[in-house]
Design brief:
It is a single chain. The protein has 3 helices and 5 strands; from the N terminus they run E-H-H-H-E-E-E-E. With 146 residues, it is an alpha+beta fold. The mean pLDDT is 91.
Length: 146
């Protein structure tokens, strides 16, 4: 089982993730489409969907603001602008990295079987870091050795 394993992620269905105002709606629409069309892709959409959508949105905002596809002008605009996205405000640092990291450290807890639906609920991937959105404490791996 996954219980006790620490990993990184970008979005999990924990209550503190409401700082991403549009992500929950985006994920709900994505999940409905996957189910309705029986698509053989990531059924939950937590790992890549919110930030992929935000990245394309940022590019679109930059192209519209610059008014052309000039790569240098787009890059300059992206470097100096804070963007409103489904994952909150995004601004890039001098080297192109996120000015504020959005990588989560999560721990799998309370996994009971191989049912995918349990991962759509809060509590199976508790956030350990960043501290301001933490939803749980690290369980020692020994607690799961039974």
């Amino acid at each position: 089982m996954l219980n006790g394993i620490l990993n990184y992620d970008f979005f999990v269905p924990e209550p503190t993730m409401n700082l991403y105002p549009g992500a929950s709606d985006l994920i709900a629409r994505y999940q409905a489409k996957v189910k309705a069309e029986n698509l053989k892709v990531d059924a939950l959409g937590y790992y890549l969907v919110p930030f992929s959508y935000a990245n394309v949105d940022i590019l679109g905002q930059a192209v519209n603001a610059v008014g052309s596809l000039d790569q240098d002008a787009i890059a300059e605009y992206i470097h100096k602008t804070a963007f409103k996205t489904v994952v909150g405000d995004v601004k890039f640092g001098a080297n192109g990295e996120w000015e504020q990291s959005r990588t989560l450290v999560v721990q799998y807890q309370g996994i009971t079987n191989n049912d995918l639906d349990q991962f759509a609920k809060a509590g199976t991937r508790k956030i350990m870091l960043p501290a301001d959105i933490k939803t749980g404490d690290v369980d020692t791996f020994n607690a799961y050795r039974k």
